Amino acid sequence: MKVFIDGQFGTTGLKLESRLRGRKDISLLELDFDVRESFEAKKPLLEEADVVFLCLPDDAARESVAAVSADTLIIDASTAHRTAEGWAYGLPELSANHRAAIASSKRIAVNGCHACGFISIVYPLVSAGVLAASSRLSCTSLTGYSGGGVTLIDAHEKGRSAGDKYHSPRPYALGLSHKHLPEMQKMTGLDSPPIFYPVVGDMYQGMLVSVPLWLPAKEVWGVLASHYKDSRFITVKPLDLDAAVDGGFMNVEACNGTNNLEIFVFGHEEQTIVAARLDNLGKGASGAAIQCMNIACGLDEATGLE
Question: Where are the alpha helices (DSSP H) in 179-282?
Fold first, then answer.
């Protein structure tokens, strides 16, 4: 199976390449670094590949899609097609229909990293009727700076040597118009998007997405535990606060290097916080992309991910 990573030298592309290189069922088609932005240079590889991963800005992703045969499997890690008609959404754990769509589609849009955590929490609750579609929700997400790509990585790592100005967590997207909001609303069935408050921490990767709810913790936990009981990569942890924390604090980086997403439910009879912990470069990007490829190609979904 011939695979081309369009955008191989970006953060997600490099992670994909490192996970795929050791697989004997895959032959990687590669582009020289010096011509990585040349459409004419990559067009023959787009045409030759059986599977194309897109790790590009949105406009470039659309350009590449237009150049690829309808028979070629495209897995797009950009924002360009996550709510587009005709594209399967790359979070198979949501339902049997989502998994079937991925298995039968040649066009798959990988979930956004923040969106992955939020949707994994909210979709089962709306589907079960525990949350109404009219619910007005908020969401806070603490993330590693690798999610911002090369520019943000350079800013953090150079900033350390220039006076540590990036050690403080930094909220962003304060205009309340983050690019993940459309999929967060559409894929959960909510009537309106959440109020979303993302924060970049001084860590390379790792993510904790939290949603507060005015619902009993045991009821919320029961719905989520039932929904994900057979899931390979999404785990709902027991209602055990002491087991989830260390000295009262959570480790945001505990899922790094995996395709795992762990859901925690904290609270009491009136108030609940549900938190999803994942690797923003794993289940939030490259890991999810490979999982989708495996499903679409009829392979075990965990191939190359465990």
Answer: 181-186, 217-227, 241-244
Query: How wide is the angle at C-alpha 292 spanned by C-alphas 290 and 296, nearest 5°?
Result: 120
Chain segment 99-158, per-residue pLDDT in tens: 999 999 999 999 999 999 999 999 999 999 999 999 999 999 999 988 777 778 777 776
Residues 110, 112: Cα–Cα separation, whole Å: 7
pTM greater than the 0.85 cutoff: yes
Provide the β-strand partners of residue 3: 28, 51
Q: Return all residues near 248 (Cβ < 8 A) that are at least 6 apart.
A: none
Q: What is the dihedral of CA 159, 172, 267, 96, to 10 degrees?
A: -110
Q: Tell me, what DSSP letter sits at residue 278?
A: E
Element (DSSP H or E) covering residue 211 = strand 207-213
Which residue is it, tokens 């205009």?
Answer: 175
β-pairing verdict for 73-76 and 107-109: parallel
Residue type for position 183: E
Other CB atoms within 10 A of residue 56 CB: 22
Q: Count CA within 13 A, CB hemisphere, residue 31.
A: 27
Count of C-beta atoms within a 10 Å radius of residue 151: 8
CB–CB of 112/79 below 8 Å?
A: yes
> What is the distance between the alpha carbons of residues 100 and 84, in angstroms, rounded to a whole number?
17
Q: What is the pLDDT of residues 33-77, one digit of tens each?
A: 888 778 888 899 999 999 999 999 999 999 999 999 999 999 999
Among residues 120, 150, 212, the alpha carbon closest in space to that of 8 is found at 150
Provide the edge-to-edge strand list for the sheet that holds 170-171.
170-171, 195-200, 138-143, 207-213, 272-278, 261-267, 234-236
Q: In the structure, what pLDDT confidence band is assigned to residue 163 with cuts at 50, 70 and 90?
A: low
H or E segment and range at residue 236: strand 234-236
Q: Which residues are part of the catalytic machinery?
A: 113
d(CA 74, CA 93): 20
What is the total residue count of the chain?
A: 306
Nearest to 38 by CA among 18, 17, 63: 63
